[in-house]
Amino acid sequence: MNHPSLSAAVSRRALLKISGNAFGLLACSGLSAFAAEKSADPLAPREPHFQPRAKRVIFLSMQGGPSHVDMFDPKPQLTVDDSKAIGKGLNPNGKLLGTPWSFQQYGQSGQWMSELIPELSKCADDLCILKGMQTDLPAHAQAYIQLHTGMFQFKRPSIGSWTLYGLGTSNADLPGFITINPSISLGGSLNYSSAFLPAIYQGTPVQAAKGPDEEASISNLKNPRLSFSAQRQQLDLVQAINREALERDHFNPSTQGMIDSLELAYRMQNTMPHLTDLSHETADTLELYGIGESMTNEYGKHCLLARRFIEAGVRFVEVNSNGAPGVSSNLGWDQHRNLKDDLEKNCQTIDKPVAGLLTDLKARGLLDDTLVLWGGEFGRTPYAQNGNGRDHNNKGFTMWMAGGGVKRGFSYGQTDEYGYEAIDQKMHIHDWHATILHLLGLDHEKLTFPYAGRDIRLTDTKGNVAHEIIAT
């Protein structure tokens, strides 16, 4: 029978069908060519858009929203007006709450920091403190997902996935993106997902150490029943079936991602256990991170793991803090009440490990090209909640960067006299993302991936690089 397209009279239905198939083939051809370009070795190191200042990232993520006015952004007027009524904000009938902790200047740079973080204060001259941060919503889940992916309305790749996609990694036997002790409650795997990027770019979760003598680990990394060689034989059979399916489908990101992930998991069995074993570290190094001390043991181990991972070639490592044991909030830094007791515990948990990480990186010559990030999804209000706590504040809060080409001993941005809203040198999360990519040698407007009919990027259609914080 003749194909409808060869008949003298072609119906509108047939014409639309033929045209649709043709457009579909064109789209598939374009995607297949793109995939072929990336799939030869999707984790191989790639050239950045321009000369980078940083080669790798460690993101110290504080889940729940740490209080900037109690840690990094002193507000004398807030202390003077303690207990006075405030006429603006989420709670216009609330009363102002002055900080119960003292601030002073540290280092040659004179950075203002509070007594909550005495060890980190010793690193003041290495910090670039961003005091004009802003994000879109004062809601944990949305703000935390936006912090990681740039957008909360749709599923998007995380910044770690974009970094790995843009630059690859230098160790083929390790994931290029690792997240230690990731959040379960605030978006879960969305925060380290590769979304529509190939699956090989998603983050690999490393579970927290549960006890004082336990190490962090990756679930199901070892096969207790099969030897390494037997696993290879089994994997070869599975991969042959996968590659046959991939050849038949021509373009199937899920199958390609499965092939890449299985090969990486097989190789990781030899490298990852060695990296997560801290028994060969010196006593001085363990003490530097606070390992062995009750308050700092767990987070200290995770920060030391981050150093070991990036030293081994991992491109992006996130170290999550979900708060100290015993705090009243299940979101760690979310102090709606018990501000004094709980914030002190949280700071004790991370203060020495974070300072130890910066000190260790600097001593090893790694801080110059390692970008260290610290912060949460938003800050806290200057007015009280529940008498002795603070509410969410997305209009003005503090994060900081260190190393990786940023100015050291530098303060950027300003909030109003109470620390409620950013008023100068504002930095939205989109700007923060754009600046991070810039320091890695990536143009945030050019780092794109074709999806849903357009080229998608981390910063969507927004984002400006904060050149003022970049060292000359």
General description of the model:
This protein is of the alpha/beta class. The chain has a single domain, classed as Alkaline Phosphatase, subunit A. 34% of the residues lie in helices and 17% in strands. The protein has 11 helices and 17 strands. It has helices at residues 12-39, 76-80, 118-121, 140-149, 159-167, 228-249, 253-276, 283-288, 297-311, 339-363, 429-439, and strands spanning 56-62, 103-106, 111-114, 127-134, 177-180, 204-206, 316-321, 370-375, 379-385, 389-393, 397-402, 410-412, 414-415, 422-424, 427-428, 448-451, 454-457. The strands form 5 sheets. Strands 1, 4, 5, 6, 7, 8, 11, 12 and 15 form a 9-stranded mixed β-sheet that branches. Strand 2 (103-106) and strand 3 (111-114) form a beta hairpin. Helix 6 packs antiparallel against helix 7 (253-276) and helix 9 (297-311) packs parallel to helix 10.
Walk me through the topology.
Layout lengths: L11 H28 L16 E7 L13 H5 L22 E4 L4 E4 L3 H4 L5 E8 L5 H10 L9 H9 L9 E4 L23 E3 L21 H22 L3 H24 L6 H6 L8 H15 L4 E6 L17 H25 L6 E6 L3 E7 L3 E5 L3 E6 L7 E3 L1 E2 L6 E3 L2 E2 H11 L8 E4 L2 E4 L15
Parallel strand pairs: 1-7, 1-8, 4-12, 4-15, 5-6, 5-7
Antiparallel strand pairs: 2-3, 4-11, 8-11, 9-10, 13-14, 16-17
Helix pairs in contact: 6-7, 9-10
